[in-house]
Design goal:
Elements: H1 2-22, H2 30-41, H3 53-72, H4 88-96, H5 102-126, H6 133-140, H7 145-155, H8 161-188, H9 199-212, H10 215-222, H11 229-247, H12 252-265, H13 270-294, H14 298-302, H15 305-322, H16 325-329, H17 335-345, H18 350-361, H19 367-391, E1 402-407, H20 414-419, E2 425-431, H21 434-440, E3 446-448, H22 454-460, E4 467-470, H23 475-488, E5 492-496, H24 500-512, E6 516-518, H25 520-533, H26 537-542, E7 547-552, E8 573-579, E9 582-584, E10 597-602, H27 604-615
Parallel strand pairs: 1-2, 1-4, 2-3, 4-5, 5-6
Antiparallel strand pairs: 7-10, 8-9, 8-10
Helix pairs in contact: 1-2, 2-13, 3-12, 3-13, 5-6, 5-8, 5-15, 6-8, 6-18, 7-8, 8-17, 8-18, 9-11, 9-12, 11-12, 15-19, 17-19, 18-19, 23-24
Length: about 625
């Protein structure tokens, strides 16, 4: 019977996503559907699956692996401090930017969530619906990071301010309850230890991080398919910190979460994350979710009137704990998106399962209360994503064009500015020559500068752009302005040198600074060579219907996907892939990787869609 129950669970784990894809059930997260399937297979309905030692072990491993992968999802770059504006103009631009950063909005939102959760916990005690206000508060302040990440990825919002804000709120919704649960268990548990011993977990995490910091650089040189050392390292980190956590009286899930953070900070390769996801979501985690449902007995729960009262009460409490998020999000985002963000912040299931697992082990919650908490959490996972998908629409700040500023308005730069897609770029040209200004001002957006010096360029806002192109004939001016632009913080600086002597002397210096250098004679020579070797090059580059484009792959939806599997492969032709300093000649079986620079040909309309799909950070 033990083997049969495991076989049924594994079969259900295989069939569930297939059925969801077949019937296009995309409104509910997979985790919620797996819990519902577990309820169906358990004593609540079919009574086909029974708890045993094997399933309990695999389920506990599943929650540990889920916490580990959740720790790996934290993006610590979001906590980086912004640079202080160094110039009056930069300060003016910064003042015109949105006042409230994602970190501030998320921190304030979660502070209010914590306050509301504590009030609701004491409110339940006053209403005699629950006896422990602290445990109730911990449950109400939980947010399911995994479901939030999946939803934001689906909408491709992780790189946008709104997505970053909601992601940080959800991250706090796992970290804070996890730490609170550890402190709660340490104080009220039967095997409590001194709280200061919990600090040993973080000390050990720091030691492991320092010890394995160079691991992935070394791993690149000795990787063998039969060793899988990166996966072995992940399991070593997990069980080292889980065992330590349990040894000092903390919960194992805290150790697993910290292990995920350590693994994230070690900066593993993308394929390492993919394989860990495959192990977790392919085996252990579905068993955890399904057994969470199978352990419920709805027949007994719903037969008791007290449970029927608790479910709506807990569901309302989950929503009320997050209602203040709406007011905070309205400080920066429009009403519909504030509502969408609030709905996603109310989604909770994974941490509720973890908290209830600990609470039941401590005998701090009855089976009726545990079932009511869980069923109310499932309702939030049904309503939250549905309301999010109905309410969200793109923010105006997410639709901004790439700003390109040209220094030097002449026969070389003006045609380029005119041919750049106006739907993608916001273009301004600058010149210090009054004749050129009067000649080209009617054709392109041109600004006249009193002189071309770094100081006058900064004062005029020339360097407040995503890309600055130095196309002046004077090589010395281009050199000075290029260095000033890069020092100012411009992402891309492209500089022209017609004087080969100047270029030879300073090219290495500029390239070392990250400045892109070009020389018209060299470009012409390369073009002529290409025309001889590939006669259709000129036709390709000058075609009004199809031309060459490049995009850096940042969307993880398309990573580790063969080119032939791309949904839009029929609309483009990928000619080259630039990866790790080398050009690859792609085939239909070539797998795409994060940060690949994909060079392709297509129409201008198609290219814009492809660049948006591949280039968005997700």
């Amino acid at each position: 019977m033990n083997q049969l129950s495991l076989l049924i669970i594994l079969a259900a784990a295989l069939v569930t996503p297939l059925a969801m894809a077949r019937f296009r059930l995309s409104l509910l997260p997979t985790a919620v559907v797996e819990i519902l399937v577990g309820i169906l297979l358990g004593p609540s309905a079919l009574n086909m699956v029974h708890t045993n030692d094997t399933l309990t072990l695999l389920s506990n491993t599943g929650v540990i692996f889920l916490m580990f992968l959740s720790g790996m999802e934290i993006d610590f770059s979001l906590f980086g401090r912004r640079k202080t504006p160094q110039t009056p103009l930069a300060a003016k631009v910064a003042n015109n930017a949105p006042k409230y950063s994602p970190v501030f909005l998320a921190g304030l939102s979660y502070l209010l969530i914590a306050v509301c959760s504590l009030l609701l916990g004491w409110g339940l005690v006053a209403l005699k619906l629950f006896s422990d206000p602290w445990l109730a508060a911990i449950i109400f302040m939980t947010i399911s990071l995994g479901i939030v990440i999946a939803t934001l990825k689906e909408k491709e919002l992780l790189s946008k301010p709104f997505g970053q804000t909601v992601l940080l709120i959800a991250a706090l919704g796992e970290i804070v309850p996890l730490l609170s649960l550890t402190i709660y268990a340490a104080i009220f548990g039967s095997h409590n230890q001194s709280l200061w011993l919990i600090l040993l977990i973080f000390v050990a995490a720091g030691v492991l991080f320092i010890r394995f910091k160079p691991f992935f650089n070394f791993y690149e040189r000795i990787n063998k398919s039969t060793t899988q050392l990166d996966i072995r390292l992940a399991f070593f980190l997990i069980f080292s910190l889980v065992v330590l956590a349990e040894s000092v009286g903390a919960e194992g899930i805290l150790g697993a979460f910290v292990a995920g953070i350590v693994m994230k900070l070690l900066q593993p390769r993308e394929d390492t994350k993919v394989r860990l996801d495959a192990i977790g979501y392919g085996f252990f985690i579905p068993i955890f979710f399904m057994m969470s449902g199978a352990n419920l007995n709805l027949r007994q729960l719903l037969a008791q009137p007290a449970t029927l009262i608790l479910i709506p009460a807990f569901f309302v409490a989950y929503l009320l704990a997050k209602v203040t998020v709406y007011g905070v999000l309205r400080l920066r985002f429009k009403r519909g998106n504030a509502l969408a963000g609030t709905a996603m912040s109310a989604v909770t299931i994974t941490m509720v399962l973890a908290v209830l697992q600990v609470a039941k082990a401590m005998h701090a919650v009855t089976s009726q209360q545990s079932g009511a908490f869980l069923l109310a959490a499932i309702l939030t996972c049904v309503c939250g994503p549905l309301l999010f998908n109905m309410s969200y629409s793109a923010e105006a700040e997410d639709l901004k064009k790439t700003t390109v500023h040209f220094i030097g308005t002449n026969l070389m730069t003006v045609p380029v500015a005119q041919q750049l897609s106006q739907g993608w770029y916001d273009i301004t040209m600058y010149t210090d020559k009054d004749t050129n200004y009067r000649t080209y001002n009617s054709e392109v957006n041109t600004q006249l500068l009193p002189e071309l010096t770094p100081e006058s360029a900064k004062a005029a806002g020339v360097f407040d752009a995503n890309t600055v192109v130095l196309g002046h004939f004077n090589a010395t001016k281009n050199y000075e302005l290029a260095k000033a632009a890069k020092a100012y913080g411009v992402t891309r600086v492209i500089v022209r040198f017609e004087d080969r002597n100047v270029l030879d002397q300073r090219a290495d210096e500029l390239i070392a600074l990250g400045i892109e250098v070009y020389n018209t004679p060299s470009v012409n020579i390369a073009m002529l060579r290409s025309l001889i070797e590939t006669p259709t090059t000129l036709r390709l580059l000058t075609s009004s219907n199809t031309t060459v484009y490049e995009v850096t792959l940042r969307n993880r939806r398309y990573t580790d996907l063969a080119i032939r599997q791309l949904p839009f492969v029929g609309d483009i032709t990928i000619s080259r892939i630039y990866r790790d300093g080398h050009f690859l000649r792609p085939t239909g079986e070539t797998l795409l990787k994060v940060n690949d620079r994909v060079i392709f040909t297509s129409s201008a309309t198609t290219a814009r869609e492809i660049r948006q799909k591949l280039g968005v950070l997700n």
